[in-house]
């Protein structure tokens, strides 16, 4: 089911946490809400879940206005960063909990819990207790528990936030596969642009209580709507009003009409990538990201004079992208 947020605002005292936020999460999609700490991501998720009420605006799920409904009548599954498992219950009992309180028949509970444990790859752990699970396994159990009651939408707030980078990476790939399998509309809150870019169909970038842009991962990266978005979804260098991604900085060995004179300050190998720190004649500093092959071709060394083509830079003073002319 789709989620539609229309013109939602929310203040805490005099602090405006959300200002006129609108967002559509299409049915079956995996959409990420991406933004820095404090931008209002969790507040938006909590409003959709019904844990908070908006001051203005409306929220609908599957075409039904749920703005005035309590959480339990919205049929949402929720998973947070620090999942509160029932410690005295086994994994099986934790996953079965929601079905038991809904008084579902025993056979149905047994079948469903079995299926869910398969889905989250915890079948072999059904009779363990939460204290015997790793962080990644606990979060998978949390997902199984959220899915048990067949939510119409799944809301995930930094579900892998507390885990180390390697486990996070594994769970990301796993979540994407799970989503493709069960096709439940999913909204994922994260401050990690790599996480959002890797698994989401669409990303809503938030900044200071507003949504700055909603687009596909490629769309955000290639056509950022604002300087904030450009800086948040990838690396950028600034040269005066111009913003450019380091891999778009072209280094030339001979002068050309559009190129600026610069000095190589340092060449650093970062595995296959190479970082070349540059000082432009006018005093601006920037860096170029090259491949090792490109570096070998250019034979760059510190102190060398080169020419920098910034024609792929952008400026956000005016709405359209402005290529630099000489
Ligand atoms: N119940 C509350 N009372 C007062 N202020 C709140 C409350 N909930 C959130 N805020 C404030 O609203 C702002 C947005 O909070 P929110 O938790 O939505 O941010 P976030 O983007 O999820 O950040 P993080 O990634 O750090 O969790 C913050 O400045 C926060 O302090």
From TrEMBL:
Transmembrane segments: none annotated. Keywords: ATP-binding, Cell membrane, Membrane, Nucleotide-binding, Sulfate transport, Translocase, Transport. SMART domains: AAA. PROSITE patterns: ABC_TRANSPORTER_1, ABC_TRANSPORTER_2. Residues 3-233 form the ABC transporter domain. It holds the Pfam family TOBE_3. GO terms for molecular function: ABC-type quaternary ammonium compound transporting activity; ABC-type sulfate transporter activity; ATP binding; ATP hydrolysis activity. SUPFAM superfamilies: MOP-like (SSF50331), P-loop containing nucleoside triphosphate hydrolases (SSF52540). The keyword Cell membrane applies. GO terms for cellular component: ATP-binding cassette (ABC) transporter complex. This is ABC-type quaternary amine transporter. It comes from Thermobaculum terrenum (strain ATCC BAA-798 / CCMEE 7001 / YNP1). The lineage of its organism: Bacteria, Bacillati, Chloroflexota, Chloroflexia, Candidatus Thermobaculales.
């Amino acid at each position: 089911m789709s989620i539609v947020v229309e013109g939602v605002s929310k203040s805490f005292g005099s602090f405006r946490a959300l200002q006129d936020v609108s967002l559509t999460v299409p049915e079956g999609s995996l959409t990420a809400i991406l933004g820095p700490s404090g931008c209002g991501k969790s507040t938006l998720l909590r409003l959709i879940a019904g844990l908070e009420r908006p001051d203005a605006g409306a929220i609908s799920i599957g075409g039904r206005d749920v703005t005035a409904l309590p959480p339990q009548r919205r049929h949402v599954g929720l998973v947070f960063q620090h999942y509160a498992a029932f410690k005295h219950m086994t994994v099986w009992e934790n996953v079965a909990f929601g079905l038991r309180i809904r008084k579902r028949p025993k056979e149905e509970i047994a079948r469903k819990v079995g299926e869910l444990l398969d889905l989250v790859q915890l079948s072999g752990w059904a009779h363990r207790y939460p204290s015997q699970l790793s962080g990644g396994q606990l979060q998978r159990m949390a997902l199984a528990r959220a899915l048990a009651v067949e939510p119409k939408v799944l809301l995930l707030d930094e579900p892998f936030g507390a885990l180390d980078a390697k486990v996070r990476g594994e769970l990301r790939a796993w979540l994407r596969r799970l989503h493709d399998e069960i096709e439940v509309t999913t909204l994922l809150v994260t401050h990690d642009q790599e996480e959002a870019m890797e698994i989401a169909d669409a990303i809503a970038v938030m900044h200071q209580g507003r949504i700055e842009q909603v687009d596909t991962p490629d769309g955000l990266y290639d056509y950022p709507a604002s300087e904030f978005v450009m800086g948040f979804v990838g690396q950028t260098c600034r040269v005066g009003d111009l913003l450019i991604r380091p891999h778009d900085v072209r280094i030339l060995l001979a002068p050309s009409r559009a190129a600026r004179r610069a000095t190589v300050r340092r060449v650093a190998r970062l595995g296959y990538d190479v970082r070349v720190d540059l000082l432009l004649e006018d005093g601006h500093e920037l860096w170029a990201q090259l491949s090792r092959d490109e570096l070998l071709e250019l034979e760059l060394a510190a102190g060398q004079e080169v020419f920098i083509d910034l024609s792929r830079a952008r400026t956000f003073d005016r709405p359209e992208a402005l290529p630099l002319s000489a």
